[in-house]
Amino acid sequence: MLRATAPPNSSPSSLDEFDRACLARADYFLKHEFAYRDEHATKTATIGIVVESSPVAMLAWIGEKFISWSDDTPPLDTILADVTLYWLTRTFPTSLYHYRNSRGPHASPETQPTGIRDKPVGYSQFPKEITPSPIEWVKATGGVNLVWAKRHEKGGHFAALERPVELYQDLMDFIGVAWKA
């Protein structure tokens, strides 16, 4: 996930249909699905304890995200396997810490990553990503050294699960470019 805002003097109407659809999905997500992020960031321990208290609670909390954040809903066995991994390893609560560190009450400029502007960055754009950024906006922000980007016709927030072959190839292609950068 790579977030970029619209460059100055830019308008969503100047984007193609693909990017406008991505932004419409992001708008829907921010209005109807984003509350989880604030809960994870501000009540990290509470949500971790509650979700880890029951396999049904965990399946409900994680499973709904697989359903609504994916391009195509993953098979039930895949969702159950992922939730089972969290359940058996008891790692769900610690998987939330990055929300608290980046958005929670203790977040500060000192806790944010620095020194990445000069590093080569690659971006795989999937149409059903929950908070997508048009490639042109990423290029125009100047906040990253974008050396490689690719647009995909399928895939969502869980691209590594949904489109593993494509994402692997993207990684290999990016490394081929970044290694030279």
UniProtKB/TrEMBL annotation:
GO molecular function, one term: epoxide hydrolase activity
Entry keyword annotation includes Ubl conjugation: no
Superkingdom of origin organism: Eukaryota
Protein keywords: Hydrolase
UniProt keyword Nucleotide-binding, yes or no: no
Any one Gene Ontology BP term: epoxide metabolic process
SUPFAM superfamilies: alpha/beta-Hydrolases
InterPro entries listed in its UniProt record: AB_hydrolase_fold
Family in the record: Belongs to the peptidase S33 family.
Name of this protein: Epoxide hydrolase N-terminal domain-containing protein
Organism: Saitozyma podzolica
